[in-house]
Known about the structure:
Layout: E1 2-5, E2 13-16, H1 22-32, H2 36-44, H3 48-59, E3 78-81, H4 84-98, H5 102-115, H6 119-130
Antiparallel strand pairs: 1-2, 1-3
Helix pairs in contact: 1-3, 2-3, 4-5, 4-6, 5-6
Amino acid sequence: MIIQYSPDGSEPQHYDxxxxxxxxxxxxxxxxxxxxxxxxxxxxxxxxxxxxVIAWAIKKRTEPTLRFAAxxxxxxxxxxxxxxxxxxxxxxxxxDRYASEPEQLAKAFDELRDAAADREACEQIITxxxxxxxxxxxxxAGQQSPVSPSA
Length: 151
């Protein structure tokens, strides 16, 4: 999960919540007064408080003196984006779920593109999961019949 922070008038900043130190998780849990799994789940659903505390904890890597109260973005400045691993999981789920509904599948993939942190990687993943699969190889096809010894 990537938290995108887009302060008004500035370039968006991206914080990778998929790779945190144990100490950062502990700070997040103490600050948010919750368990990491729950906070991460809340953030993935767009909860502003969860996104804020995660972005703040990661931002402290480059601004160690940043206080939580001083990091107070507007609601529309924080957004969750999916990393490549999450994009692949969603894409595979969509294939299973909407295989017989091409219009729904196309709509789901459009929404996934909008939620992906890396649109190019998302396109490649969609191409991969929608590509025809090779049928399972026939084990007997690769074997040759035994040759009888010549006399």
